[in-house]
């Protein structure tokens, strides 16, 4: 059996490398006909005016450049009609008829929008995640696109950083598994199918390590931290076959990623064997001038030499490489290399067989925003929600009586989609009010009041609204708004307050120094808490928030993230128990900003504070606990899960032995439910200091009320291994603590001895 598999695998590898050789031969034959100018043209990615931009530069004379063969790809436009028009220019009017690729930020869906990626990750449901990526690809390709600027796999341990919303949180193992699922979802069985698209893994690398969580800020970290915690998700995405990568805005070891030879060549190509192409981020080539490493010609040449293949928007490569070649600053081989990689990608996408492969005017109505896609989005959203608190089981709500629905996000379609939605239309989303109405029909009475502005701080609102108004200021005064909500709430049996962040309060260029719910909304919550009715907080937001007061005063808290197109229906599914919540947070929720960066897989230090006795001369704060508000992996259910003791098949192991660790999980509550069972391992003594624990496995299991299941994990030395001081991945013999539990802080433990021989 094993032999058959390995023969089949060898055949597949042989076929793939034959296909790669074939593609390379064809691309080289084409390059033999290309002028130097045309080769440099392939390295040029531009954005026509009118598309969504994230920088000050917008491309000019797009049409003329395409006709002259000076554009490798376009991004920012979609729809078969628009893409056909542009592709016509390249295929019919340029000398060599080379097709262009068409990219877009398809981040969490194309037109049917799923929850923000941080929310999606909270589902821990890899099958579902792969499926939504595949559906996003189907929609995006129906709109003429073939390249998604996603997944974003940057590890983030700092909730001040707005782009924490675009990733999968703080853990490299979970992040890597999700990265693989998304790449597989986009790219499917073959890139050449007309419903699959090329993934672009970003932002390579370490972008999430921005100092102080401030957008685009400097990154400076040890190699061990990189290898152990920040790099694994990029590597996982590459191992899953991702066709392209995007370099990040930040520097690494003093050299911006976009011109970092160690990163783009030594690590990515030589160590990891990446065969696709690398595109810069939006004008990140040009921005190296501001970083302080030279003028446009210098930075463009450095980027190319370092291993960057395509220049997004800035046109530094287009305008300076010829000069650099003449001056001997780059070689023809450098230019050929980059051009070859881009042409190879176009062959893989099947564009040379049929440049119009992804352009079919009949597809949008069949494939976009279909009832099926909406159902998938609703399920994904319900599975992403995390029940943070519900001690008195006020949730699930009954579909009867009077429910007061209040808050600036309660009857608001505009902010349901979250950050990075280029093609999605917020008008097509379902507000929480609408979703609740759909769910209860005439069985319950829903009374509504807005209750507060998103913020009463005009300057904050102005900055949030920089790329389009999302946050408005009501004509009524803050006091009047609160009073209205209080009146409505007094008449109800239960208050549901929908509060948090507007879509652009998180995401790119949306760092916050204060990550609490804005003061205007807090004032509303405080007024509601005095009424003496159960207060359910539904949070719509894009990052972990500091919620100490809310945890103390709310009867229940549901973290709903920005749930996407089907927001309201999914919130109602969870509030009324039509879906029993199973999400678990993938980024630690701090108690206060002062604790940041805070993450579960921290080191012990030489003076750890264990929560008992005197704290003097211990690693702690005078004025704050070390504990988070909600730990990584935390999330409740309407039912209760009881974990039995860990059973190990062996207490002592050696070499390549395998350990089986099991627990009996029992659903002791009254509802069927799903639980994410998490496996952590600690290595208490090693040649370098290790984290207190690391996630090494998880399973999402479903149990009926009263049901028990044995959940087993197979553990191999691979899960004990780490990068040592020489950056070699090794494992060292000794004691290991195996932990299985419901979140990173609540686990059952058992110890094993693992020897080399
Ligand atoms: C972002 C990328 C994005 C690109 C193109 C940049 O500002 O950092 O994530 O893919 O713009 O829209």
Overall structural class, as computed from helix and strand content, comes to: alpha/beta
Each distinct ligand: beta-D-glucopyranose
Q: Based on CA inertia axes, which overall geometry fits?
A: globular
What is the name of the CATH superfamily of the domain at 371-586?
A: Glycoside hydrolase family 3 C-terminal domain
Order of strands, widest sheet: 9-6-5-4-3-2-1-10
CATH hierarchy: architecture of the domain at 371-586:
3-Layer(aba) Sandwich
Mean pLDDT: 96
Q: What do we call the CATH topology of the domain at 371-586?
A: Rossmann fold
Number of strands: 27
The radius of gyration computed from the alpha-carbon positions, rounded to a whole number of angstroms, is 26 Å
User: Which band does the percent of strand residues land in?
Assistant: 15-25%
Q: For the record, give the distance between the C-alpha atoms at the N and C termini, rounded to a whole number.
A: 28 Å
Helix content: 25-40%
Largest sheet: 8 strands, parallel
- What CATH first level of the domain at 371-586 would be assigned? Alpha Beta
Unreliable stretches = 1-5
**Helix run count:** 22
Would you give an account of this structure?
It is a single chain. This protein has 757 residues and is α/β, with parallel strands linked by helices. Among the domains are: 371-586, 3-Layer(aba) Sandwich (Rossmann fold), CATH 3.40.50.1700; 641-755, Immunoglobulins (Immunoglobulin-like, Sandwich). It is 32% helix and 17% strand. An 8-stranded parallel beta sheet has the order 9-6-5-4-3-2-1-10. Strands 11-16-15-14-12-13 form a 6-stranded mixed beta sheet, sandwiched between helices. Strands 19-27-26-21-22 form a 5-stranded mixed beta sheet. α17 (432-440) links the parallel β12 and β13. α16 (371-384) packs across α22 (567-575). The radius of gyration is 26 Å and the shape is globular. The chain starts with a helix and ends with a strand. Residues 1-5 have low confidence and may be disordered.
